[in-house]
Each structure stands twice: as structure tokens, then as C-alpha cells.
Design brief:
Chains A, B: InterPro entries: DNA/RNA_endonuclease_AS, DNA/RNA_non-sp_Endonuclease_sf, Endo_G_ENPP1-like_dom, ENPP1-3/EXOG-like_nuc-like, His-Me_finger_sf, Non-specific_endonuclease. Two copies of one chain form a homodimer. By secondary structure, chain A is of the alpha+beta class. Chain A has ten helices and eleven strands.
């Protein structure tokens, strides 16, 4: 292993000081790439909530046991994480699997989705985790999935996911928080109601909307972008820009702050 | 204070052994009554969830920031807790107050309830906390409140609360978990939908149902009773027994186990 080799060399030569610092930096990067410190790198700007956390090889989520969906899914991306390598795997070699770390009563299953008319929509997108087979395979846990309108999933939402990956080409780091929303609607009498379908024996909630909050970092400069999309057919002529919204709108509806440590850290 | 006096006596007399044990037992009871160990006594059989916990003088709750309601509220009751004392206070001397420990975006306010047509329904009932003024006052935090149908609140639900207090007269301990539910309903086309109103600027969710799970203990023998009631007008001729339901129904709908440590502890 590269880290060990380098450290070994330093130890043998007995070199300290500047070289030691360089080695230390390299070692940290290696550890990150190897996944040991990965969860803290992904959650660099804080946890939106601390309930039912699932730490996967390349993303972190909080699970909503009442709706059988994630509350939020967090990814840290860059060009090395999204690009295909010799360790990559094709999507069609992977199958959706139940998350056995969730008690059966609160867990969605493939049967819940069958004949429901909804796609099993990834929150951490499979194609964001190309570099390693395990990373991509982990996105197929059903705890990372919500019932998603097929057209929306395969077109408008897919475009948003592609846009996120395009940001990796000209930024150093891209932090992405993705999740479902259950928004109220005004009825004819002026009263507001939340209405959403539930599917399957486990009553998996069909979100009314999905959101994505994207924080990009380039040489210490940060940019924040927030999107919200309805979970139904979206006319392909509507440009992505139209789904931009304020972070506040998402946070009020979701019931959490997306990057709780952001302000304290970067200002 | 009684504890200090007793301990003082022991110290002065230098008495150990058996008397020391008796004093230690008394001291523990005193501490419980004084509230120092109160949260752990209330949560004796485990926490249903660990998100947004609020520990009050005589109850514990988990707050649902998305719906601006509690997830669950836990009480430990007995005859000494519910009975009026010289420290008691009347209900009409108390006012509902916002819970300032919850960020403004996720907090319900009195304004949200005004002209909504819904009562501010206590989950930990005010009349369960008679013995001390602070105990009863603490039940008036809006984090302990959900929008409740006035007739249901003042009749069927009130009867259930009275029944809980009646259980204190012939049991040693009564553990009560209370909370809101958002249940799906089958539409004409066979699909299932969750629909609930939200009120006020903060979109406080109006639960479709409320539940109460009651664990009584008498000389080491335990009895569990579970109730679920729709949050609308309930015909007064319907007996309380009709609202009994399985604990499983409540737990599946709520998304948590009510007494996670119960089986391990009492079997």
C-alpha cells in the first residue's frame, strides 16, 4: 500500500521536518480515499439530524422510519469519485436490496414498489459513485430510495443529477444533500393540506417533492445552489433553472438545517 | 430539606450498616421526587427515538420538527404525582407558551392555533401533574401540544385521560406514552393516501389520530393497554373500549417501538 511504503521510507531514512509534513498530508488523503475518515469528510458541514443514521461506504443518510424513506442523504463528490476506473461496475450488474439494519416494520421492500407505478429513485445517485464497485453497489440499498415518478426520475431529475456531476469538473469539492419533501397545498376553501400516496404493505410514502442542496468549493470559495422539484411528470421544455429555490424553503419544509455548521466554518 | 436532615443525622451519629442502607433508600426516593433522577425514571423502559429530546420537570418528549408536533410524550405517574397538594396550581392560572428551545422555523406558536378551529391539545395531560405547580406549568409548552378536535379533546380523549388517572389508584406505577399519528386512508380506486391539514404560518400538522400506550405495574406485575382515537368528532355513546388497538398497529404507524427495553427487562 502506497501509504505504508511512504511512511516506511521516512522511518528508514529518519527524515523529519518538511518531508514529514508532506508525508502526513499524503497519508491523510490516502486515508480519505480508503474510506477510514470518509463519513466525517462527507458530513464536513454538520449533520442535519441525528436520527437513524446509516453510514455507507461513500454516503451518509438519516432514515425516516415513519415514511420508510430517507430524511436526507449526504454525498461528497469530486472528479476522482465520479469517474470510471478499473474498479468500476455497471449499473445493470447491481440489484436493489432491503436495508436489514432497519427493523422489518419500518423498512421498504422491492415488493412495496412492484406494480406501484413508481420508480425506485436513488437519492445518492448511482452514477455519482463510479470509482469503486462497492460505492455504487451501496447506493442500491432501499434506504437510499424513494418512490419517484418514472418520467421525472428519468428526465428532469436525471438532468439535475448530471448537472451536479458537471460541477465536479470545475470545482475541488461538491457537497450534496438530497431528500424527499411532503408539501402542503391550498384547497379551494383556503385551508392547507398535506396529501401523499403510500405504496405497498409497508406504506412507503410517495414524496410530493424532492430537493437537492449543492455546496461547491473551489480554492476556498463556496457557492450554494438549492433545487426543489415536484414528484410528477415535468414538461421537458422547462429549464433546470426554474426549479431553483431558496434554501430556507427547503429547510422549513424538511424540518432541519441542511448545513448546520456552514456559517460558523466558512464566514 | 428532609434528605439533608436525615443524612446529617447519620453523619453526626456515625451510624453505618443497616441504618445506612435505609437512609440510602430514602435518599434515592427523595431525589426522585425532587426530580434529579426523574428523566430516567420516566424513561425506565427505553426511548422510542432519540431525536430532538426535551426533558421537562415531569415528562420527556421527542419533537418532530417537520410536523411541528411531538413524536411522542412520556409520563411516569402514580397517586402521589397526580394528586393535588399545597404546591398545586389551577389550570386557569397557566398560559400556553412557545418552546424557545426549538428554532423559530420549526416551532408552533399560539398564533398558529388562533381561529384554526382546533384546540391546543395536551399530550402530557395537565391534570396528570397536579402535585407541583412547575410540573403542571411545564405541560403548557407548545411542544407538548397538537391541534386537536375540540369535541374529541373535551370528551372521548378526556375520558381516556381520566381512565389513565384512575389506574394510578390501584397500581404502583403507570407509564404513559402519548402522541399523534398520520394514518393513510384507502381511496375509491384502491390506492392509499395520507391526508392531513396544516394550520397557521408554521404549518402545524393536524394529526389524523392520537394514541396512548399505558403500562401499569403492581407489585412486579405488568399490564399493557393501547388506544388509538381519530382526531375528529366522536359519538359520546361509543365506549372507551372500542378504541383499544394492538401496540403493533401504533408502532408501525408511528415508526418507533414505544417501550424498546420492555421485553428484555420484564421477561
Amino acid at each position: 500500500m502506497f501509504v505504508k511504503k511512504l511512511l516506511g521510507t521516512v522511518a528508514t531514512l529518519g527524515v523529519g521536518g518538511l518531508v514529514g509534513v508532506v508525508v502526513e498530508r499524503k497519508r491523510r488523503n490516502e486515508v480519505n480515499a480508503a474510506g477510514v475518515d470518509r463519513p466525517n469528510q462527507i458530513m464536513r458541514y454538520g449533520f442535519p439530524t441525528n436520527s437513524n443514521l446509516k453510514v455507507r461506504s461513500n454516503y451518509v443518510l438519516s432514515y425516516d422510519r415513519r415514511n420508510r424513506n430517507p430524511n436526507w442523504v449526504f454525498e461528497h463528490l469530486n472528479i476522482d469519485i465520479i469517474k470510471k476506473t478499473k474498479d468500476s461496475i455497471e449499473r445493470d450488474q447491481l440489484a436493489f436490496t432491503e436495508d436489514s439494519s432497519i427493523p422489518g416494520w419500518f423498512r421498504s421492500t422491492n415488493r412495496d414498489f412492484a406494480k406501484s407505478g413508481f420508480d425506485r429513485g436513488h437519492m445518492a445517485a448511482a452514477a455519482n459513485h463510479n470509482a469503486q464497485a462497492t460505492w455504487k453497489a451501496d447506493t442500491f440499498y432501499l434506504s437510499n430510495i424513494v418512490p419517484q415518478h418514472p418520467h421525472m426520475n428519468q428526465h428532469a431529475w436525471n438532468n439535475l443529477e448530471k448537472y451536479v456531476r458537471s460541477l465536479c469538473h470545475h470545482n475541488d469539492n461538491v457537497y450534496v444533500c438530497t431528500g424527499p419533501l411532503y408539501l402542503p397545498r391550498k384547497e379551494a376553501d383556503g385551508r392547507m393540506f398535506v396529501t401523499y400516496q403510500v405504496i405497498g404493505d409497508n406504506h412507503v410514502a410517495v414524496p410530493t417533492h424532492l430537493f437537492k442542496v449543492i455546496l461547491t468549493e473551489k480554492k476556498g470559495r463556496y457557492t450554494l445552489r438549492s433545487y426543489m422539484m415536484p414528484n410528477h411528470y415535468i414538461d421537458p421544455s422547462i429549464p433546470l433553472e426554474q426549479f431553483k429555490c431558496s434554501l430556507e424553503n427547503i429547510e422549513r419544509a424538511a424540518g432541519f438545517f441542511v448545513f448546520p455548521q456552514l456559517k460558523a466554518e466558512i464566514h
